[in-house]
Specification:
The chain is α+β, with helices and mostly antiparallel strands and 338 residues long. The chain has one domain: Cysteine proteinases (Cathepsin B, Chain A, Alpha-Beta Complex). Helices cover 22% and strands 19% of the residues. The protein contains nine helices and nine strands. The longest helix has 18 residues.
Length: 338
C-alpha cells in the first residue's frame, strides 16, 4: 500500500515542507524523506491521514439517487443556522479508517440518537464503533475503503457500540459473535442510503432540509492545504498527494500523481457563513475543536486541475506541475433515509 502523514496546522506557515513517502492510509514510520522539491507552489505535498477510495462509477450507477427536486419545503421552513447533535470528536490516529469513522461513528450515531429520541450520547448505547465496520472490510489499518461498502455493511448488519468494540489500530482482529449480536440490536429497519449526485449537491436547500430533518451526510473528497487552514473551505490550494514509495521515479515522469482522499460528515449549516459544518476525526485540536466549514457553492461545484510528476535533470529535483484534466473536489455524498 501507500503511506501518509498528518500535517499539523502550524506547518502551513513553513516555507518548504519536506516530502514524505506516504499513501492515503498511514504515516511512514521510518522517517525517510523523498526527493527534493523545486519549491512550495509546485512541491509534492504530504497527505493527511485519510483512507477514502472513490467508489467506481459502475458501483455508483447502481446506488439509488436522492431526488432533491421532489422536496416541497421552502427556505422559510427551517432556520438559518442548525447543527446536529453528534458524538464527541474522535481521532483516527495513524490509520486509514476515515470511512468507518464518518459512517459508523459519526453518521450512524447521530441517526440513532434522533431516531431513539435520546438526550445524551453514551458509548454503551448510541455511540458506535468504527472498528466494527473497518475490521470486516480490511485486513490491516493501511487499507482504504469505498464508502458504499461501509454503508452496505451498516444497512445489513447495523454496528456495535463503541463500548463493545473501542477504537484500536489493531484492525486485523476479527469481529466476534458477541459484537455482531450487539450490532444487530442497532440495525435500522427498512433503511436505505441514497447518493447525492453533483446536481443534488448544488441544491443547498435540499441539503439543509436533510440536515434539519436530522440526517447527517457522509461524503468523500480530495484534500488540499486549504482544507487545513481556510476559515471556510472555498477553493482548492496545494493538493495533498498520496503515492506509493516507488511513485517518484523516472518512469512516472508525466504521469498523474494520485491525490489523497478523505471521508467526513456534514452535520450542520450556517447561512451567515454560507457554509456547511463538517465533523472530522483528526482529534479536537484540529481546526475548530475538530470541526470546519465548507462553502455551499464549493460543495456542489468545487474543482481543481490535476498534477503530473516533473523532473529537472539539472537540479535533480522532482516537482508537481499542472496537467490538463479538471477534477471534482467532492466525489460522492450519501444520506440514510427510510
Amino acid at each position: 500500500m501507500k503511506m501518509t502523514t498528518k500535517i499539523k496546522t502550524g506547518c502551513i506557515f513553513t516555507l518548504l515542507i519536506a516530502v514524505l513517502l506516504l499513501d492515503a492510509c498511514k504515516k511512514n514510520r521510518d522517517g525517510s524523506s523523498g526527493p527534493e522539491q523545486s519549491g512550495k507552489d509546485n512541491g509534492i505535498q504530504a497527505s493527511f491521514f485519510s483512507g477514502y477510495i472513490p467508489t467506481p462509477k459502475a458501483i455508483l450507477d447502481k446506488v439509488p439517487k436522492f431526488n432533491g427536486e421532489s422536496l416541497t419545503k421552502t427556505e422559510a421552513y427551517f432556520p438559518t443556522k442548525f447543527t446536529l447533535a453528534t458524538p464527541p470528536i474522535g481521532d483516527q490516529g495513524n490509520t486509514g479508517t476515515c470511512v468507518a469513522w464518518a459512517t459508523s461513528y459519526a453518521a450512524w450515531s447521530a441517526e440513532q440518537y434522533y431516531r431513539t429520541e435520546s438526550k445524551t450520547f453514551d458509548r454503551n448505547k448510541n455511540i458506535f464503533s468504527p472498528n466494527y465496520v473497518y475490521n470486516q472490510l480490511s485486513t490491516d489499518c493501511n487499507s482504504g475503503l469505498y464508502v458504499t461498502d461501509a454503508l452496505d455493511l451498516l444497512k445489513n448488519q447495523g454496528t456495535c457500540t463503541y463500548q463493545t468494540l473501542p477504537f484500536s489500530d489493531n484492525c486485523s482482529s476479527a469481529v466476534s459473535i458477541a459484537q455482531k449480536a450487539d450490532a444487530a440490536k442497532y440495525k435500522i429497519a427498512n433503511v436505505e442510503y441514497y447518493l447525492l449526485d453533483k446536481e443534488t449537491r448544488k441544491n443547498t436547500t435540499a441539503i439543509k432540509l436533510l440536515l434539519f430533518q436530522k440526517h447527517p451526510i457522509v461524503f468523500g473528497c480530495d484534500v488540499d492545504d486549504n482544507m487545513n487552514n481556510q476559515d471556510i473551505w472555498n477553493n482548492f490550494g496545494a493538493p495533498r498527494f498520496s503515492y506509493d514509495k516507488n511513485f517518484i521515479a523516472q518512469k512516472n515522469i508525466g504521469h498523474e500523481i494520485p491525490v489523497g482522499g478523505h471521508a467526513m460528515t456534514i452535520i450542520g449549516y450556517d447561512d451567515a457563513k454560507k457554509a456547511f459544518k463538517v465533523q472530522n476525526q483528526w482529534g479536537n485540536q484540529w481546526r475548530e475543536q475538530g470541526f470546519f466549514w465548507i462553502d455551499y457553492d464549493y460543495f456542489g461545484s468545487g474543482t481543481y486541475t490535476n498534477y503530473v510528476l516533473s523532473y529537472d535533470a539539472n537540479t535533480k529535483k522532482y516537482s508537481a506541475v499542472h496537467g490538463n484534466t479538471v477534477k471534482d473536489v467532492f466525489n460522492e455524498a450519501y444520506v440514510f433515509l427510510n
